[in-house]
Amino acid sequence: MIQSSLDLFDPHPQRLARHTLLLPGFALPELEALLDALRPVLRAAPFRHMHTPGGLRMAVALTNCGALGWVSDENGYRYTPIDPVSAKPWPALPPLLVDLATRAAAQAGFDGFVADACLVNHYLPGTRLSLHQDRDEQDYGQPIVSISLGLPAIFLFGGLQRSERPRHIPLSHGDVLVWGGEDRLRFHGVLPIKPGVHPRMGERRINLTLRKAG
Ligand code: SIN
Ligand code: FE2
């Protein structure tokens, strides 16, 4: 059978591991509403470069919305209800985002996921995120739901040990990736973003990770 070029774009969910599902383009139908909802969040809590507990400036700029937000400083990594920059609570989580994450999680087999935190990462070309585990949340029974916007990225998806060589997963604008269950503590990261200009988002990648942190 001759493959049509349409088959090269595969919009079907892809199971990457037992409890990991990639939903290509899942966020695209609501993209403009999502960007509208994000604008006031970024005005109230602008992106900032945090420092690792060891004092290194993180390459990724980040901010949060939701009841809890992730912060890093000389006192360590943690979730806090207050934005240390504005000294106010983090902006509320847009209901549209909570709903999108609940639906994506359900597709991956995690029913009843209700996010209370959204970490927003900003990558410029050249920015990378080194391998790490997400372990500051209370309940590892709850998945992580990641929404990618803008420039494409290669997501590194490793094992439960840092030494395990990670797989390379291409993530594009609008893709949603859900990992939980036995995959919840897999090491993951992002290769340096390749130079480029995304037609809708410009010269950047933005990643939203929705979590049940508290
Ligand atoms: C993260 O691990 O917090 C972000 C992952 C990503 O940007 O795709
Ligand atoms: Fe992470």
TrEMBL record:
Organism, as annotated: Pseudomonas peradeniyensis
Q: Is the keyword ATP-binding assigned to this protein?
A: no
- Any GO MF annotation of the entry: broad specificity oxidative DNA demethylase activity
Residue span(s) of domain Fe2OG dioxygenase: 114-214
Q: Which residues cross the membrane?
A: none
What are the record keywords, sorted?
Dioxygenase, Iron, Metal-binding, Oxidoreductase
Question: What's the top EC group for this one?
Answer: oxidoreductase
Q: Where does the signal peptide begin and end?
A: none
Q: EC number(s) of the enzyme?
A: 1.14.11.33
Q: Does the keyword Metal-binding apply?
A: yes
* Pfam families per UniProt: 2OG-FeII_Oxy_2
* Names of the cofactor(s): Fe(2+)
Task: Write down what this protein is called.
Answer: DNA oxidative demethylase AlkB
